[in-house]
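A quick aside before the break. I want you to see a complete sequence-to-structure record at least once, exactly as it would be stored in a machine-readable document. Don't worry about memorizing anything.
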Amino acid sequence: MLPRTAAKCRIRSGWTRRFAGSAESGFCTKHHNGKMSLMSVNPNQVTVRIVGEDSDRGLVRLEHFTSFCDSLRRCLRSLEHDLTHSKPRTQYRIVDLRSESASITLEPVPSNGRSNVGREVVSVFKKTVRGLQSRSIRRPNIDERIEIDTLQAFRKLYDPFLKAPPDSHRRLRIDDVDIDVTFVANIQSLTVTPIKSLGSVSGRLEKLDIHNKRKFVIWPALHNARIICDFPDNLMSRVCNGIGQRVTVYGMLYYQREKPYPIRADVRDLEVLVDDDQLPTLSELRGSLKQATEPVASVRTMRDDY
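That is the input. The structure line, written in tokens, reads:
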């Protein structure tokens, strides 16, 4: 077993704080230009480090720590939902916890064959944090499965630090990435006011919700992301009849920049579509126009009926 090591790392505010590392927790210290920094070497773990206010000598207050942990949990759950399109079930355990500047390391708990899901969530989480903190002039490179609600959950990770007094010197680091206002600015650029357009979109109707506001979700066949649809009371019966079936919704569609499908729709009308396996085959249609006096008009009528 390697001996426990400790290093002094300079924080941007000008004061120093001790960070400790050990082989057991999956951390090592790395020399760079004569300085030492702490970094995670386990790709299946994520480490968060919070530096408290100068008035508390850098120590983190309990309410700040527990509030951040709750925001982190919500963010991981929202991200898992975007990646799996199912109810988040992955649990996380603490494999390392340190004081002074509070440091916590989490890893997914393998259960019921879902270990790969937890690893993917952690991997995408880390890549997303790095992308959102990027200072590149290009738009942040974010996994296209991540939706606006999840980006807002990422933003809430930094909210307590953004709202802190300028002289408090509170700091947040996720793995080896120091988080600052660039993180928030990039999220804002990805969640700008969507483009509106009247139109229609088709998909399978799922997840009806009538609590407070009436809405349902559709999933387009060629797009691996949901579209949230708000609808008026007069469409309730048609929406209920369409649950689990392919539908086309008509109304105001809201598009996020650089995405081909809308992210939301204000539904004004809805049509329940017939599944492909219920449509007649060409052989079944043979002879159906024998008695037609106006073949073209009959074909149009038959087409419109389906």
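Two observations worth writing down. The helical segments are 62-84, 115-132, 148-162, 181-190, 236-241, 282-285, 295-305. The longest helix spans residues 62-84. We'll return to this after the break.
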